């Protein structure tokens, strides 16, 4: 019996005449070293400054290198993003950069690309690790440590909160790795602390207006809230609008804590309306394409490549606001 590394996987490839069976070896596909590549970038959405900055960084780096970038925007739909990956497979791109909308459906898309002989590099968000793994189904994950981000917020709150913390948590997109991990990290950091209580946790889908609407509703149910932990800046800014509309002073009556570190949010730290922000840097282009070239050169690629992230607080925000994205 042949070993598993010699087994072949049958992948369906769409052609002009119908479906043909293409046999490819199991494991990560090889990538030839070339002067230029045709590379796919399947973005999850473009409805906020973070995603726009990430896309620009990828486009700028591709242009600088002279690569052809096949760009798609899933518009916040996991189903659309799966279809986008299918389209890239049909176009026979050399490799795919993927920012997964949700963990489970995009794990299947990653495995389909691998079966078609196209290596995938994940950006910012991960896929379900029970369904797809680095080094086998995709090359690597490049991004921040989302659990650590949540932990840093929780640790800062524990250190700086005086009295009882009555917390509302605005969750990111349901099923996404940053939402799952930022919640887990934060809740781990405050676990067992008698003076900290989460009153409610509800998704604001990483969107400003949704964050505002959810915060308005939660304020009615929990008027005694004195801490808002938002999984990203957009929801934090939406929450600030809701707090001000309710006659509360964000940053004073209610602490506001966030993750991302966009310039608008960092300016709000300077203004005293946001108390603390952990950065999640969106400028992926240089690291993403460097990793692609290293992979093609046969270099060993780590399963995770973690971006270094800063923090913004009342002490440093004024100095750093100009360098925020």
Automatic annotation (TrEMBL):
Keyword Transmembrane included in the entry's annotation: no
Signal peptide: 1-25
Family matches, as InterPro entries: Peripla_BP_I, SBP_2_dom
GO cellular component, one term: cell envelope
Subcellular location, principal: other
UniProt-annotated location(s): Cell envelope
Domain of life: Bacteria
Molecular function in Gene Ontology: carbohydrate binding
Keywords, sorted A to Z: Signal
Domain annotation Periplasmic binding protein: ranges: 39-300
UniProt cross-references to Pfam families, sorted A to Z: Peripla_BP_4
Entry annotated with the keyword DNA-binding: no
Protein family per UniProt: Belongs to the bacterial solute-binding protein 2 family.
Name this polypeptide is given: Ribose transport system substrate-binding protein
Organism: Deinococcus hopiensis KR-140
């Amino acid at each position: 019996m042949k070993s598993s590394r010699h087994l072949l996987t049958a992948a369906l490839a769409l052609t002009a005449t119908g479906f043909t069976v293409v046999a490819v070896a199991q494991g990560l596909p090889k990538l030839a070293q070339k002067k230029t590549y045709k590379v796919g970038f399947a973005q999850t959405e473009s409805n906020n400054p973070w995603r726009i900055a990430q896309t620009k960084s990828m486009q700028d780096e591709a242009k600088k290198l002279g690569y052809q970038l096949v760009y798609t925007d899933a518009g916040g739909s996991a189903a659309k993003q799966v279809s986008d990956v299918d389209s890239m497979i049909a176009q026979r791109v050399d490799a795919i950069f993927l920012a997964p909308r949700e963990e489970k459906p995009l794990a299947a898309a990653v495995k389909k690309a691998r079966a078609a002989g196209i290596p995938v590099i994940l950006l910012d968000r991960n896929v379900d690790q029970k369904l797809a793994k680095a080094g086998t189904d995709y090359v690597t994950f490049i991004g921040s440590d989302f659990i650590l981000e949540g932990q840093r917020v929780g640790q800062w709150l524990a250190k700086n909160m005086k009295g009882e913390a009555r917390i509302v948590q605005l969750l990111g997109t349901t099923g996404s790795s940053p939402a799952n991990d930022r919640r887990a990290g934060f809740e781990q950091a405050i676990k067992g602390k008698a003076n900290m209580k989460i009153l409610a946790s509800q998704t604001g889908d990483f969107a400003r207006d949704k964050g505002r609407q959810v915060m308005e509703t939660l304020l009615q149910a929990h008027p005694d809230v004195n801490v808002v932990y938002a999984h990203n800046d957009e929801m934090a800014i939406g929450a600030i609008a809701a707090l001000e509309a309710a006659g509360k002073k964000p940053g004073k009556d209610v602490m506001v804590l966030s993750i991302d570190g966009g310039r608008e949010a960092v300016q709000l730290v300077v203004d005293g309306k946001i108390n603390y922000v952990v950065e999640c840097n969106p400028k992926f282009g240089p690291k993403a394409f460097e990793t692609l070239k290293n992979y093609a050169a046969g270099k060993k690629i780590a399963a995770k490549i973690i971006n270094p992230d800063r923090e913004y607080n009342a002490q440093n925000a004024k100095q750093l606001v100009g360098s925020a994205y």
